[in-house]
Design goal:
The protein has 279 residues and is of the alpha/beta class. The chain folds into two domains: 136 residues, Rhodanese-like domain (Oxidized Rhodanese, domain 1, 3-Layer(aba) Sandwich); 121 residues, 3-Layer(aba) Sandwich (Oxidized Rhodanese, domain 1), CATH 3.40.250. The chain is built from eleven helices and eight strands. The strands form two sheets. A five-stranded parallel beta sheet has the order 1-5-4-2-3, sandwiched between helices. A three-stranded parallel beta sheet has the order 7-6-8. Helix 2 links the parallel strand 2 and strand 3. Helix 5 crosses helix 10.
Length: 279
C-alpha cells in the first residue's frame, strides 16, 4: 500500500489480525442494521448504527458534537484511542474516517477490503457483543475545512476551477432512481448541473480493496477530476462522497477536496436550485 499518497491511514487484514487485542485500538463496525453484527463480526468490534448513531431522522449527518462524544464514550474510546473502521460495505470505513476527522479525532485507520475481505480469508469471527468501560470523551470544535455547504456549491456551478463530482449510481445520476422510494418531501431526481459522474464503486477491486494509485489516477483524470482543481464530491446523504473524499485526498493526495455532505438529500429538496435529469 506504500504507493498511495498516505498509506499510513490504511491497514490490511493481517495487520488487524495481529492487533486484535491491542488495548489502544478500538475496532468499529458501521452498518444500517445490527443484525449482521450480532450474527458475526470481527472480534472486539463495537457496533455503530448508521441510522441512529450517525444520521438524523431526515437522513442528514448529525454534526452535534455532544452526540458524537456520547457515541465515542459509550464505545470505550478516548482521544488517544486508534479507531479501525469497517462495514459490510467496503467504503464505509473511509466515510467514517472523514466523519471522525471533522470531529477532530485524528487516530483513525481504514480496513482495506473491509468485512468482505476478512470473511473471504476465513479469519475469526465473534458473536458475543463487545463491551468496554465507557470513557468521558470531550467534543472538539468541528473542522469546517473538510466540508462544503450548499451556498458555495451553488456559487461554484460556473467555475472552471471547481469540479462537482457525483459519485452515485448511474440510475441516481440520470434521475431514474430516488433516495426514497417513492420520493418524499419534495425530492427531485437528477443531478447538479455540470456534475461529473464517477461512481464510487469504480475505485474498488473485486475483493473490496482499493485499486492501485495509477488506476485511480486514470479513473479520475480521464473525467477532468485533476489535482489542481477544487473537488466537491456528493452522493445521496454524504457517505459515498465522504468515501470519495478519502480516496482523492489520502490515496491520491489531491490537496483541495471538500465533501458536500448535504448532497442530493439536501439539494433536491430546494425547488429553486437547478437540476439536470439527462446524462
Amino acid at each position: 500500500m506504500s504507493q498511495y499518497a498516505h498509506p499510513e491511514v490504511l491497514v490490511d487484514t493481517q495487520w488487524l489480525m495481529d492487533h486484535l487485542n491491542d488495548p489502544n485500538t478500538r475496532i468499529v463496525e458501521v452498518d444500517v442494521s445490527p443484525e449482521p453484527y450480532k450474527n458475526a463480526h470481527i472480534p472486539g468490534a463495537v457496533f455503530w448504527n448508521i441510522f441512529t448513531d450517525i444520521l438524523k431522522p431526515n437522513l442528514s449527518i448529525n454534526f452535534d458534537p455532544i452526540a458524537i462524544a456520547s457515541l465515542l464514550s459509550r464505545s470505550g474510546i478516548s482521544h488517544e484511542t486508534t479507531i479501525i473502521a469497517y462495514g459490510s460495505y467496503p467504503g464505509t470505513g473511509a466515510w467514517i474516517f472523514w466523519l471522525l476527522q471533522v470531529f477532530g479525532h485524528k487516530n483513525v485507520l481504514v480496513l482495506n477490503g473491509g468485512y468482505e475481505k476478512w470473511v473471504a480469508e476465513a479469519r475469526p469471527l465473534a458473536t458475543e457483543l463487545s463491551q468496554f468501560p465507557p470513557t468521558n470523551y470531550q467534543a472538539k470544535i468541528l473542522d469546517a475545512s473538510l466540508r462544503v455547504l450548499r451556498e458555495e456549491v451553488l456559487a461554484s456551478l460556473d467555475s472552471e476551477d471547481c469540479v462537482l463530482l457525483d459519485v452515485r449510481t448511474p440510475q441516481e445520476y440520470t434521475g431514474e432512481m430516488f433516495l426514497m422510494k417513492p420520493p418524499e418531501a419534495g425530492e427531485r431526481g437528477g443531478h447538479i448541473p455540470g456534475a461529473v459522474h464517477v461512481e464510487n464503486t469504480l475505485t474498488l477491486n473485486a475483493d473490496g480493496t482499493f485499486k492501485f494509485r495509477d488506476e485511480l489516477q486514470t479513473l479520475y483524470s480521464s473525467q477532468g477530476v485533476t489535482s489542481e482543481k477544487e473537488i466537491f464530491p456528493y452522493c445521496a446523504i454524504g457517505g459515498r462522497s465522504g468515501y470519495t473524499w478519502f480516496v482523492l485526498k489520502y490515496l491520491l493526495g489531491y490537496p483541495k477536496v471538500r465533501n458536500y455532505d448535504g448532497s442530493w438529500n439536501e439539494w433536491s429538496r430546494f425547488p429553486d436550485l437547478p437540476i439536470q435529469t439527462s446524462t
